[in-house]
Amino acid sequence: MRCVAAAAWRALLLLCLAAGPWALARAGMPVQQVPTVKLEAAIGSIDAEARGLFWIDSLNSASVEQVALTAPARFQPMQPGVIYTPGESGTLWLYYRLERERTQPQNWLIEFPVPVLDLVTVYQRDAGGQWQAQTAGDTLAVDAWPDPGRYPFFRLDLPQGQPRDIFVRIRHTTPISLPVMLSSQSSHDQRIQIEYMGLGMAFGALILLIAACLAQAWVYRDRVYAWYSGYATLMTLAVAAYTGVGGHLLWSSYGYWTDASQGLLALLAAGAALLFVRNLAGVSNRFRWLDRMAYWGGWAGIPLAGAFLLVSKPVGLAIVGGYVASAAITNTWIAWLAWRRGDVVGRWVLAAYVPLTLSVLLAVLRLFGLLPISFGTQYAVVLGSALEVPLLLVALSIRSRERHGVQIRELALSSQDALTGLLAAHLFHDRLRQVVSRYRRDQQHAAVLFIDLVNYERIKSFHGSAVAEQSLLRCVIKLRRLVRDVDTVSRVGEARFGLILEGVNSRAAVTDRAARLIAAGLMPLKGLKPEVTLQFHIGSVLLSERLMDAPALASALAELLGSMSSRTRRPIRFLEPEATLRMPLGASSLYDGDDDSQLPRPGADPHPAQSNA
Question: Cα(44)–Cα(177) distance, rounded to whole angstroms?
Fold first, then answer.
């Protein structure tokens, strides 16, 4: 019974369609005549958006035979920039009458340069008068297209000098304007090459930046660059899906993923952009609520991407449009706030996101049927992404340099004296231990000096802390004039400096430098107010004369300086060399001749502490 009813409905529909032209003529309404489009040799390509007729089958129930039977009675003239709304259950039909010039040797194609077009079928009659269908679209695997490419195009079988009717059936769930091109084979090939050259340059630049970020992450051990390379990869894949490059070259065998990848990758890329810009601009200190909003909004891209695969396509596309537009606007807002407070990074992020936000808004308006498809609305996102990724990399480099500068300063505070910039005391003592060990192992000579600014406390009490610190800095300047690059200088006390002279094995060389330092300190700096002189006491030791462990050596030099009077006339002193016994001449005798005189007297100190310079 159900089959009989269905057959009756089909018969009634055929009757209505067949009676359509007769009814329109009886009613006095004009029947649309389809214009014949001449395909001439001198014209390489024709914009056919307004050269045919259209009809929206809201029930999606008419076959090509039924449509051809009633055409062009139900059809309306096409207009440029018109946005069609067939809906989720409707179908858009286009009707063209084409005639190839008799002398035209080239084949012609009909193109639909919209990579996001869901499904399009072109019907042509064969030699036997039967309708032959060719189908393409992003809901169909690109490998199954008659001619794989970024967007659907079909070869036309047109005899020379004879007009032929072409019907096009289009399924698309969202409102869309429909650019249609009629192109010769040579014109089509040239345009495809130009398009891929431009896209190749954009993708090549993006991939080069990704590789550079990975290299910097590896060289500098900086995870921020690794995160940015992940974000840039998502952006590149999203643009590839949007432009049809992904469906043509990357996942051409998967029709479902070709259709779903556009929205899913856009959601993930928008979420990653929110998280990255939030971290890059650093708004957490001043705008905590905005920081939390960007944080949770960025991570929300993952569940929204999962929901996109489950809901109906119109709902999913509404989610994509709303989320991507909100993310772009939020990133621009964050960048503007950072730039307003004088952050250089904010200026670069703002320069990156203003064009991208405008292009994203154009794409969203086109998605919702508020703007027709054009080169600007289609490829503005590609241009915006090609500008955004390198500009964000510049901002990242500036921020990374700032962070590394802070880390270097932190390391410097642990390895250098904060006031003088000299080596920290603990590193000086480590260096002293190395010098002592090297002398014991390789007999590499060195001299160790401790230098006191004797009148430091008096300067501090009379002139204040500022002048006292200035005096310490003057000491550093005078010390650096006397040492070589291989020598080690450190501040080992409040007004005490340590100096290691590599390769020195002569008291005369040490005394010469010490005397020059004392003389330089007694000469006040020209123009200095107040005139302050620097008085130095210097204790020294040659490792070849007295070898001790590093802590004992430092203690002995400190004791030597402590034993010196502030008014002494001998400001340069050395630790005395160790008293040693002469080796016997033979194994049978301990002493030879008057060697008893070399033995220390009973009760005498075998290690005199000091001698004059």
Answer: 23
